[in-house]
Amino acid sequence: MSGLAASPAPAGAAAGCGVPPVLRERGQREVFCGLTGIVWLHRKIQDAFFLVVGSRTCAHLLQSAAGVMIFAEPRFATAIIDERDLAGMADANDELDRVVTRLIERRPDIRMLFLVGSCPSEVIKLDLSRAAQRLSRRFAPRLRVLNYSGSGIETTFTQGEDACLAALVPEMPAEPGAARSLLVVGALAEVVEDQFLRLFAALGVGPVRFLPSRRAGELPAVGEGTQFLLAQPFLGETARRLEARGARRLCAPFPLGAEGTTAWLRAAAEAWGVAPARFDAAVGPGAARAATAVAQRRERLAGRTVFFFPDSQLEIPLARFLTRECGMVPVEIGTPYLHREHLAEELALLPAGVTLSEGQHVERQLDRCRAARPDLTVCGLGLANPLEAEGFTTKWSIELVFTPIQGYEQAGDLAELFARPLVRRARLAV
Amino acid sequence: MELALWTYEGPPHVGAMRVAASMRGVHYVLHAPQGDTYADLLFTMIERRASRPPVTYTTFQARDLGRDTAALFMDAARDACERFRPEAMLVGASCTAELIQDDPGGLARTLGLPVPVVPLELPAYQKKENWGAAETFYRLVRAFAAPRGTREVGPPRANILGPTSLGFRHRDDVTEVEGLLRALGVAVNVVAPLGAAPADLARLCEADFNVVLYPEVAGMAAAYLQRQFGMPQTRTVPIGVGATRDFLAEVASLAGLDAGRVAVSSRLPWYSRSVDSTYLTGKRVFVFGDATHAIAAARVCAEELGFEVVGLGSYSREFARELREAARAHGIEALLTDDYLKVEEAIAALRPELVLGTQMERHVAKRLGIPCAVISAPVHVQDFPARHSPQMGFEGANVLFDTWVHPLMMGLEEHLLGMFREDFEFADGAGPSHLGHGTAAVPPPEPIPAGPAAWAAEAENELRKIPFFVRGKARRNTERFAQERGLRTITLETLYDAKAHFSR
Predict the structure, then answer these.
(1) Residue A136's domain spans which residues?
(2) Is B133 helix (H, G, I), strand (E, B) or coil?
(3) Which reaction equation describes what this protein catalyses (chain A) (predicted)?
(4) What confidence tens digit (pLDDT) does each residue in B159-175 have?
């Protein structure tokens, strides 16, 4: 049997307890590379600039994804490797320095520059971390230069954010002594951050900091007393590096829907020894509002089947929310990568017997999807319109990364994202 | 290394994809890393295509590099052939696969696939998208075009060459040009690559001549057909009234027909002569795009709209000679570059009143506050419209008139602005008011809370975080909610209670 057609095998041996069997597949993967993370990270860290070192393909990807917005000042660019660099006729490091200097002249307001590795730069083994150190020395203290890889061969879509945040961890100042703090990790919408800040204040949990911060110069401190909550499920490397700096991860499901948000907040409340009565008083109104808002979409969603193609690693928490709070029936939950430790609490909440798949053979997965005829298919934009044309109702998955969906106040909006394509299909008479 | 804030063209394999996706019965197996499938979105989202492009990617990952990526390619090619049963296959590499040198062409040969395989050598670090499309189309034409047998008598026949998937208005241009040919009495033999199958390419020589609509894509193939089979080709691209007239004359002479059979039926000449257009005279315009569209636009500007062309440039280096010639005719120096920053510099220095360019020039124009219209790829989703919007032929000229005049300030407003400079609403630099968003200099008055409930500062702050286009609705709903419950103060809790209450 060919390498592309490896037979699906349950991964029971590698799985922790409570992990359902996982269908592992290899073949064509219809996913984004980690460079795509730049599309939202450049808005989150407002004084940062992302310079991809790669090929014309990388530049083309970025502008196809983000170029529909008209930028007076673009906050990302590509240093395109040409044949002179490949032939060794030009010293790649000199070339990079020249390009960065030109960029900095044009944009003196930039405070942090990310050199982002790509497939070509990784394959030719261009040492961008040393280049970042060299350029940091040269432009200090005005500009800090960091490096991470968003290459497709190493990262899938949201893993680009993981790689970026992991690069920020060594830059975070050290917390003096064992001062206690809560760190919320993962890029969140500003309105969501503010809601969480208020909830933690009501619980008496704090001080609370966020990674990434809104400005490059305001990175939170980290130390032995830091406990962190992951707000996103795709932050394996960032978590590892935070732990290496003495921080401890609080185990929790992810703050999607009322149930996920409550459990996520509870993890912090328990670590801070918050009394149950105070916890209930602080989260009660929000949880009740979330339930009210979700209930209004439940009618549309309950009993409907849903099929997830792999995209962002958000699939498992989303499937948990749709199953337990909206009454949907998952057919298959695909994920590009399954971090068993970080997803343990989520997996325990999934219904028994659900099919999980990790990795992808897109043609075979499409065959399974067509055979199952799900009521709603969550997939990327490369598949969405073609599936719609075949009569399937789809929810394009990338939107879930660009929309405020975490926390109580967004639970209704989250359910709405899945209800809307179904409403639309019912409504259109043409 | 080249600093690219924006790139005018994609890599050459995207050009090859455009040709594959244009045709029927062709499948492309592309050796490429995970993530390069982003290119599918160009077709499914920007062009809104209802099917997946016929491309199989090997999507190798880092862990595959230590092993046999060549085997990965061969498996993908074999599987794709079995699953999609194409009439012909294209095989090639993307930029990263080019570095690992697996030789897709050689590998595919060893597989002994049951269909013709056309290997593509597209040097990703030297060449770009249009070259990739041209080379791919040329390779396909070389592989399939066969000499013409005896053909029955009938009207003269022409092929239409060059239109592709993701081409700027190619869909509607083909409709226009087919209409022009029909009106002249010329039959259309094959349109390619758009809509053609390999079997259609085999019939190319049954035509008497080739109509080359987009030299960037079809130039190489048309030159081959001329060289190999003696097929003449048209040189005029029918964008603008004058060029359409010249095109008709050229086609008529190739077909041995009388061009006088087709009347000029565009509204542009009258619209442009009508007195409302007088103020357009001498407007300074900067033109940039692919060579074909830029050269054509410059002629329309100068001869048909009465503008002054102050800058003319292109990223199509393959057409440097033609562009220089055209620029000389306008008394200026051509700008040949694919460096966005150089184009920006040129525009900033020339300070034109209108920029006709690509999606990229819209960024420059926004930065410099200059009106702008799009005349060429690269373009985004809004330039693949639902309505009929050709650039070519007589209807195309109508479209050009409307599109290019629209971003300019209308005559009366321009006059009044010259007379009264201190108006609070129609201020200098506020932009044309017919575009709606020009009055941003004056902040819209915030409605004063009418009901008895007052907004707590915290809630008011929160309200500002709501996107502006739904903020008004959120405010109204919250106030109604508070009023119905007799609340005196609107707190954060009220805001979100109302949000939950009114959510659909």
Answers:
(1) 34-155
(2) helix
(3) chlorophyllide a + oxidized 2[4Fe-4S]-[ferredoxin] + 2 ADP + 2 phosphate = protochlorophyllide a + reduced 2[4Fe-4S]-[ferredoxin] + 2 ATP + 2 H2O
(4) 999 999 999 999 999 99
